[in-house]
Write a structure and sequence with these properties.
about 625 residues, 16 helices, alpha+beta
């Protein structure tokens, strides 16, 4: 029992303190070369990543060698490349020029200097790797004096209207060893500083500069002469290799996540109380009265959901589109569920760079067979006949939205020469995955789903539709949409903040145990609110619930869109056109995806509820 409790605690708190599956430790001997690689440059102000050598920086003598990357790394804008830093295990280095000589500095032209100054003013960070461990910058909080770590190091800074570059790096590396023979890198910190070229003395291999020195200015309007240098310091550490990611995973406060879970549980209990009142008090009384032996006149005087039993299962308008949207929602749901479970178990750790995005894409592609199956069975239940056309709609509707939105945004990213631009070969690979895997699997799922018997309904549908009476004002679709979206959004908005921070502020997110709990609570709350809204709609003798359940159940997506705008205005400092376009474009993709997910959950919950209550009454 104790082992199970420990396992659950570790899963909820992420990977802190236990082995990360699929990532083998690298062991170094004393004096072995430790390669320093560069990933990219990022800024939360522009949202446009750039590869390391997009600026005229020191290059290795043996040439630049780019690492072969997976699909997720390419889509994230990572371009991992070697650097000229020479680091040996356990050997400190006081100061060494990175390239060129004291008498032969790097000469940046006016255009090159202007580009560097522009990156610095836009608050760009440089991201390096040692043994697949990203570098971090340590600083102290002014109020609590606690040590906090930040990913990467700042390219430079502004002071008194001038721009300065951090051209000297102190690489502080920590190692752990059990036998003083094999060493493992467990921490990688960078202390960046700006040193004017005139302050360097000594030799190329052993340079020095005074503790109090002038900063290296970057001319915004003319050429710049600059020297790059670095030093290395090794420290022994008690941190074991399995816990070396702790400083990155502790960048978020776990207590806030627990508050989010408690807040979500309160929402679920509130909805459960409403449902209990409806199911036990109202529905049981209504079913008992309806099944009692009453005279015909008394039956005719009844009102509410019982009177629309002959129309409640009447197929909605545009059944092909309806089935396609539900099928896409099922596909997204299965992809999200499996991805979160795998990440929660540590199989998609941040050490496996790009693994999370790669797994999500492949799972979405292969879940097409399940989405096609459910869409086909629903389409046949809605008396559809053109199953091939419906299968094509299911396979192309949502992917086409993703492709055209991404393709449109990619033009602007290409124009900025950003590494975030998806290469043409990668776009062909994604298109091939859809054409050769997702599309055929959707048709296979449709073939078997359409051959299955349609869902059985407990009551027959009348030939002549019943007239819907005038509805009360609070049952207006827009009001229902807003009311239905409040509680599911309230159950997950705190976790949404951390997800947005991970996406737009380049932070790690690895508390997938919390995310799984929030996902379960979101599913329950969406289902519960859909049941409540559909029940009130049927009580008003409005049997057009199919599309209403789909639209209102996804009402929380409206609040996600509104919160994204609030997050943009309060947390980000985006001012340029292209970054704003990217933000709203990617937010649109996120909102539509979230709407399909929650709408599908709400529809199936409402559908099961309606079949259950009408199956409990006696119909002549």
């Amino acid at each position: 029992m104790l082992r199970k409790l420990i396992l659950v605690t570790l899963i909820i708190h992420g990977s802190q303190g236990f082995y990360i599956p699929g990532v083998a430790p690298v062991e170094f001997m004393k004096g072995d070369s430790v390669e320093v690689k560069a990933v990219k440059m990022t800024s939360s102000q522009t949202q446009l990543p750039y590869e390391y050598y997009s600026l005229q920086l020191c290059r290795p003598k043996n040439g630049t060698i780019y690492k072969s990357e997976n699909l997720g790394e390419v889509l994230r804008g990572d371009r991992i490349v070697n650097t000229p830093y020479e680091v040996k295990m356990g050997e400190d280095l006081s100061c060494k020029l990175l390239c060129h000589k004291l008498t032969d500095p790097i000469n940046w032209t006016a255009d090159e200097s202007k580009e560097v100054a522009d990156r610095i003013t836009h608050d760009y960070y440089v991201h390096l790797l040692v043994d697949n461990l990203p570098c971090a910058t340590k600083f102290q909080m002014l109020d609590t004096r606690d040590e906090v770590y930040e990913r990467g190091y700042k390219l430079g800074f502004e002071q008194d209207g001038k721009v300065y570059i951090n051209n000297h790096l102190k690489l502080v590396l920590s190692y752990h060893t059990d036998d003083d023979k094999e060493f493992r890198v467990v921490r990688f910190e960078v202390e960046a500083s700006s040193v004017d070229r005139s302050e360097f003395t000594g030799s190329d291999e052993k340079c020095s500069f005074p503790e109090k020195h002038k900063f290296q200015e970057v001319s915004a309007n003319g050429p710049t002469q600059i020297l790059f240098s670095y030093s290395v310091e090794w420290k022994s550490s008690d941190v074991r290799w399995a816990s070396r990611w702790d400083i990155y995973l502790q960048m978020t406060d776990v207590q806030i996540h627990w508050f989010s879970i408690v807040n979500s549980l309160v929402v679920v209990f509130f909805l459960s109380g409403i449902l209990t009142m409806i199911m036990i008090r109202t529905l049981r009384r209504d079913i008992a009265r309806y099944n009692a032996d009453e005279s015909l006149e008394e039956t005719l005087e009844e009102s509410g959901w019982k009177l629309v039993h002959g129309d409640v299962f009447r197929p909605p308008r545009y059944p092909k589109l309806f089935a396609a949207l539900v099928g896409s929602g099922v596909q997204i749901f299965m992809m999200a569920l499996i991805t979160i479970v795998l990440a929660m178990l540590g199989m998609l750790s941040p050490a496996s760079r790009g693994a999370l995005m790669t797994a999500g894409i492949f799972l979405y592609v292969f879940m097409a067979i399940i989405g096609g199956f459910f869409s086909a069975r629903l389409y046949r239940t809605l008396r559809g006949q053109q199953w091939k056309s419906a299968a094509f709609w299911t396979a192309t509707l949502y992917p086409a939205f993703l492709f055209f939105t991404g393709f449109f945004l990619n033009f602007f990213i290409w124009g900025k020469s950003s590494s975030g631009a998806v290469p043409f070969t990668t776009m062909l690979a994604l298109f091939s995955m859809w054409m050769c895997i997702s599309l055929p699997l959707t048709f296979i799922g449709y073939y078997f789903g359409f051959r299955k018997h349609p869902y059985e309904h407990p009551v027959r549908t009348n030939q002549i539709p019943r007239q819907v009476p005038e509805q009360v004002w609070y049952m207006h679709p827009m009001l229902c949409l807003l009311m239905a979206g409040v509680l599911p959004f309230g159950a997950m908005f705190i976790e949404l903040f951390f997800i947005l921070s991970a996406i737009w502020e380049n932070q790690f997110y690895y508390l997938f145990g919390f995310l799984f709990l929030v996902f379960v609570i979101l599913v329950i709350s969406c289902g519960q609110i859909a049941v409540v809204m559909v029940y009130f709609q049927l009580c008003g003798e409005d049997y057009h619930w199919w599309w209403r359940s789909l639209i209102t159940s996804g009402g929380s997506a409206v609040y996600v869109a509104a919160y994204s705008i609030f997050y943009l205005c309060t947390k980000l400092e985006i001012t340029e056109f292209v970054p704003l376009l990217l933000y709203f474009g990617y937010t649109a993709i996120m909102v539509v995806t979230f709407w399909l997910l929650t709408a599908t959950i709400g529809f199936y919950a409402a559908y099961l509820f309606i079949r259950k209550i009408y199956g409990a009454v006696k119909i002549d």
